[in-house]
Amino acid sequence: MTATELAVEGVTLTAGARHLVRDVSLTARPGEVVGLVGPNGSGKSSLLRAAYRVLRPDAGCVRVDGADAWSLPVRRLARTVAAVVQEAGADFDLTVREVVAMGRSPHKRLLDGDTAEDLRIIGSALESVDAGDLAERSFDRLSGGERQRVLIARALAQQPSLLVLDEPTNHLDIRHQLEVLGVLRRLPATVLIALHDLNLAAYYCDRLYVLRAGEVTARGTPGEVLTPRLLAEVYGVAAEVAVHPRTGAPQVTFLPGESAPPVMAMSDHSPS
């Protein structure tokens, strides 16, 4: 597994007359973990769908190692990019091991069986998300958190060089949130991830892009982006931000019951 460069260049996505995303550009350099944050409805999921080639941009393009993603053969793209989406889709009448084995499909011909190497990769993917003991369970009988871990394992078994994940910590307890994000942080791959938890984003992401109403309103390192002013502007909440003495990462503390301070008109908080 080697890392891939992702470049989103001036992407606009529409649904009828409504803009989902407007003129958004971002980069995820090889080996980076890049986070998308922002309120509900800000365009994070739509932008991710463009990144893993489900929504075709109305304007702009998505490039994977310099090539237009929509020009790449499906099989080559599947070997390069793996996605974990919020909606798991229909139930699978398969065991957990069989679901994770689906991640090996881009690397095989149609009727090929699993090799010893495939089995090793599948087992390793399951263990990395603490799901080894689920291998023979029926996928459709798992809890929401267990399903999420299995779908992440399937993406890991694909051995992509670019992972695109939409709220992968949804349904997970705190321990498994930390374990899964730790696995993603250590991968020799590029990761683009949407997260709601700003403290997790601050700790695990190299850089953040903040979306609001389909546009990028801030970009930079977590320390540059996560400020009380931005949280007031984008989320409408009062908060304090300090560097945690143990982790060295910004830590956001929300102040329930306090009104967000008044702010000036929205401005791009990107570092100069």
Main sheet? 6 strands, mixed
Secondary-structure-based class equals alpha/beta
Strand order of the largest sheet: 6-7-8-3-9-10
* Helicity, as a percent range: 25-40%
Q: Strand tally, please?
A: 12
Query: How many H/I helical runs?
Result: 9
Order of H and E elements: EEEHEEHEHHHEHEHEEHHEE
Give the overall form. globular
Low-confidence stretches: none
Overall pLDDT level? 94
CATH class wording: Alpha Beta
- The overall number of domains is 1
Share in β-strands: 25-35%
Within CATH, the superfamily carries the name P-loop containing nucleotide triphosphate hydrolases
Instruction: Kindly report the CATH topology.
Output: Rossmann fold
**Overall CATH architecture:** 3-Layer(aba) Sandwich
Compute the gyration radius: what is it?
Answer: 19 Å
CA distance, first residue to last residue: 34 Å
